[in-house]
Amino acid sequence: MHFPVLIDLLIIFSLALLVNLIFQRFKVPSILGFIVAGVLAGPHVFGLETDPHDLELLSEIGIMLLLFTIGIEFSLKDLMRIRKTVFLGGGIQVIFTGSLVFGATFLLGYAWQMSVFFGFLIALSSTAIVLRVMQEESMMTKPYGRGSLGILIFQDLIVVPMIMLVPFLTGGMNDPGNQLLWMLLKVIGLIVFTIFGARKIVPRLLHAVARTQKQDFFILTIFIIGFGVAILTALLGLSLALGAFLAGLIISETEYNHEAFGNIVPFRDIFTSFFFILIGMFLNLEFIVENVWLIIALSVIVFLLKTFIASFAAYFSGYRFGVALTMGLALSQVGEFSILLAQTGRQYELLPEFYHQLFLSVALLTMVVAPFIIKSMPKWLPTILPSKLYHQRLKAHSDEQSVENYAKLENHLVIIGMGTSGHNIAHAAEYAKIDHVIIDNDADLVQQEKKNGEPIMFGNAENIAVLKEAGVEKAGTIVISIGSPASMYTALQNVRRLNDHAYVIVRTRSTEDLESLYKAGANDVIPTEFETAVEIFTKVLHHNLVPEDEVRQMAAHLRENGYGVFREREYESTAPFLPKFSISAVRVDKQSQVCNQSIGDLRKDKIFEEPILAMQREDDVVIAPDESIVLLEDDILIVMAKPEEIACKSCVFEPEDTALMTTGQQNK
């Protein structure tokens, strides 16, 4: 039995792992590692005889999942809040870059279709590289980080119509006017379907699945939605990528988007890697060697052109020169969607092999250099630019600052698990005015608490994306209150992976988990069975009138040392030498013999001589009431007597006929 494809995949993944482990030491993005692995596995180095169609199918799934996750991350509401940077800055950057490239190549004698396509290719930057490097370097909260994200959002959106226009550029459409009109009608229909699905169908479906709390059901449902909508668009003659993006948009409008995103990301990363490996396999090393100076020259031109136009777009959107220049440098490379477009153009014979190889070489060179530029620019730009030029305008980003998400919080409280304990902690945080976020995977509970105004989100704490959305990376305190031990440990490990300085409190059921949870990174562990035992123990001591300081001391030692404290230390309690008393509450009846008499008269006439510890009259409570106080109807007295005497002694507060009956029974 032979498995040539599986053997080749094993070799390719092994190469990718080896290359990325080496690249990781130099902090080079994994995307480049996959491309280099593809070069090594390709026909010009090791020459694996893998059928390209197998990898193309896997890479197509990867691109679908990539656009699917972009759709999930994308929100119409968020887009409107940062619309200035997205639409104005992004629009200027894409249109100006595409127009200049079109004009230059058209003047050089290229056909207008190819010139337009060249403009498409150069206009896009690498979302994967820019955002990954900025996240690693904590740049996303900076003005240039938010601004770069806004422009990249526009680029990610414009990819879809660019892909749709490729058949038109190749003349693959008969009667293009009618076909474009028909395509427009299809798109409008899909938009209506997307809005209807996002508001009526998918939220109810995901809620029903989430109620089962079955992770495999939820993941399967997400895949069905994603692939189902993608196949629907393909049947309508549109791209699978467009359908995947629309499916992501549908899910993005539900409260389950973060959980869905976190579950899809591992699959996306694996399948997308095939796309970059395939790019490397298509690279012709002989071509690069023969045209090395042309490739370097074109890469420099692309770098300068994109830096200039992106900086201008950012400056025109309201950023100061220094921040705009930083954004321009960050967006100066060619992106992964450009490579996807080049593949599409190659399939439609819009991009001849020579220009395809030339473009791939230029794109990869700019992508290799990009991480080093992004990491270094905040260090050297402020040193060569005046301070006033480097900081953003005061009114530039009022629309961006209004984006509401929990990830913006700092030093807040994250509560994982909205059980009884989590509910009480949330109320305490609300009372103390502590910013807090709750994570829970009970769909009904999340829906109800959201209606009540609680800052709660649906998700599983085993999902890194959910924790990031809750702002775990910047949280000051994290409480983990989950019933499942396996989920509890995974959540704790994920929390510590994101945040090693937060104070983490874990609630567990058994004392057996204490040591392992502390080793896993918990600062404090509260075992419920132990705390229940301590609470019962303290009540027993209180009932036996052990002094309060001794009760507190014993409870503290219990919590500090566990049950073994009594084996290690002997307590000399005063409790055994105290008489046994019972404390009870009695109500003064209107027809009782004590009503309208003072406490002093009761003692003088020996009607009731036992201690009265407190008295409640309506809403007022009096501790150790004075003997001059006259007892009135419905007064409640807290009295102390021996257990065997309390029933007889307290009968004086009842109606006289009832009291006589009770006294008679006691005498018998």
Please supply descriptive tags for the structure shown above.
Rossmann fold; Na+/H+ antiporter like fold; 29 helices; alpha/beta; four-stranded antiparallel β-sheet; six-stranded parallel β-sheet; 668 residues
What does it look like?
- By secondary structure, the chain is of the alpha/beta class.
- It has three domains: 4-390, Na+/H+ antiporter like fold (Up-down Bundle), CATH 1.20.1530.20; 406-508, Rossmann fold; 579-667, Regulator of K+ conductance, C-terminal domain (Alpha-Beta Plaits, 2-Layer Sandwich), CATH 3.30.70.
- Helices cover 64% and strands 7% of the residues.
- The protein is built from 29 helices and ten strands.
- The strands form two sheets. It has a six-stranded parallel beta sheet with strand order 3-2-1-4-5-6, sandwiched between helices. A four-stranded antiparallel beta sheet has the order 7-10-8-9, with no helix packed on it.
- Strand 5 (503-508), helix 23 and strand 6 form a beta-alpha-beta unit.
- Mean pLDDT is 79; it is low at 392-404, 563-578 and 659-668.
Walk me through the topology:
Blueprint: H1 4-25, H2 30-41, H3 52-73, H4 76-81, H5 83-107, H6 112-123, H7 127-136, H8 143-169, H9 176-211, H10 215-235, H11 240-252, H12 257-282, H13 285-290, H14 292-316, H15 321-330, H16 336-347, H17 353-384, H18 387-390, E1 413-416, H19 420-431, E2 436-440, H20 443-451, E3 456-458, H21 464-469, E4 477-480, H22 485-498, E5 503-508, H23 514-520, E6 524-527, H24 528-543, H25 548-561, H26 565-568, E7 582-587, H27 599-604, E8 612-617, E9 620-623, E10 636-641, H28 646-649, H29 656-667
Helix pairs in contact: 1-2, 2-12, 3-11, 3-12, 5-6, 5-8, 5-14, 6-8, 6-16, 7-8, 7-17, 8-15, 8-16, 9-10, 9-11, 10-11, 14-15, 14-17, 15-17, 16-17, 24-25
